[in-house]
Amino acid sequence: MNKSKPVDILIFGTGAVGSTLGRRLAQNANTRLSVVCRLNYDIVRRQGLSMKTNIWNNGTFRHHRVARSTRDVSDLAFDYVVCANKITASDASSTIRELAPVVSPSTALVSAQNGVGVEAPLGHAFHNNTILSAVCNISCLQPVPGIVQQISKIRPHAIHVGVYDTPGPDGAVHAKEKLADFVALDCCFKQVNDLDTVRQLTQETFNVAIALGILLPKDLLEKTIQFARNNPSTAPSMLQDARKKRLMEVDSLCGNIFKQAEQVRVPVPTMRLVYYALLEMERNIQ
């Protein structure tokens, strides 16, 4: 890579996760950051993004380009496209269409989306590109457009990134094993914040991962529960969406685990109950 040229990065989706990743990347002087925004486009274009955090320093940062659509920045050659958008049943295919104008043969795509198996559509559509899988435990919210707040303690290493694995012989798709221990915690907390239900969901997710051949620490379950006890109760992202009558990330956050459980014949009664309950809630929202 030409060291005199900045690393061009596009953040696709500027919710709490996309904004936080953008803030961290912008702190590197050799990066040039552009963003595709939706609901917060006007405020980000005028004022930039502000972050209030205990560990990464408070501050406001502006972007090289702020766009409503990828078509508006398709003239740039991006080294990385960070996908931090929501994945709902209605926009799985539209996401690929939107990304196409900004993905060149040399572009690496980073999936920082919620859930399990979310990298698969990227890998299928852009199979000649490098696909990275990111797990983010950042405990951040965007209470008003353009302002991101860190609301609770996080792990010392809040963001983990690894190369996305190609589908295995059983047809299942996994993130790198070194990331897998974050998956159970992330998916469970995004659905509920009741400790008993979290314990059951974590155990079931753990069992599915083991059956798929993913190596996990034996004390993951207790670490997950302890993490919940040590952090203030916050509304999970799916609950926030439901309260605002917005489509939820049902499949990515629990449907994909439920479907993989069926493939390896692991019983997941709590996950099954949560999955179908959320589908019914979503039908009522629509």
Condensed summary:
40% of the residues lie in helices and 17% in strands. The protein is an alpha/beta fold.
How much helix, percentage-wise, in residues?
25-40%
* Gyration radius from CA atoms, angstroms: 18 Å
The CATH topology of the largest domain is given as Rossmann fold
How many helices? The count is 10
How many domains? The number is 2
Identify low-pLDDT runs.
168-185
The coarse overall form would be globular
What fraction strand?
15-25%
CATH architecture of the largest domain: 3-Layer(aba) Sandwich
Q: Strand order, biggest sheet?
A: 5-2-1-6-7-8-11
CATH class call of the largest domain: Alpha Beta
Tell me the number of strands: 11
Order of helices and strands: EHEHEEEEHEHEEEEHHHHHH
Helix/sheet category: alpha/beta
The separation of the N and C termini measures 47 Å
Q: At the fourth CATH level, what is the homologous superfamily of the largest domain?
A: NAD(P)-binding Rossmann-like Domain
Name the average pLDDT: 81
| Largest beta-sheet details | 7 strands, mixed
What does this molecule look like?
The chain is of the alpha/beta class and 286 residues long. It has two domains: 7-192, Rossmann fold (3-Layer(aba) Sandwich), CATH 3.40.50.720; 195-285, N-(1-d-carboxylethyl)-l-norvaline Dehydrogenase, domain 2 (Orthogonal Bundle), CATH 1.10.1040. Helices cover 40% and strands 17% of the residues. The chain is built from ten helices and eleven strands. It has helices at 16-26, 41-47, 92-99, 120-125, 177-191, 195-211, 220-229, 237-243, 250-264, 269-285, and strands at 7-12, 31-36, 49-52, 59-61, 65-67, 80-83, 108-111, 131-136, 140-144, 147-150, 159-163. Strands 5-2-1-6-7-8-11 form a seven-stranded mixed sheet. The chain has a four-stranded mixed sheet with strand order 4-3-10-9. Strand 9 (140-144) and strand 10 (147-150) form a beta hairpin. The protein is globular. The termini are far apart. This is 2-dehydropantoate 2-reductase-like protein. Residues 9-151 form the Ketopantoate reductase N-terminal domain. Residues 196-280 form the Ketopantoate reductase C-terminal domain.
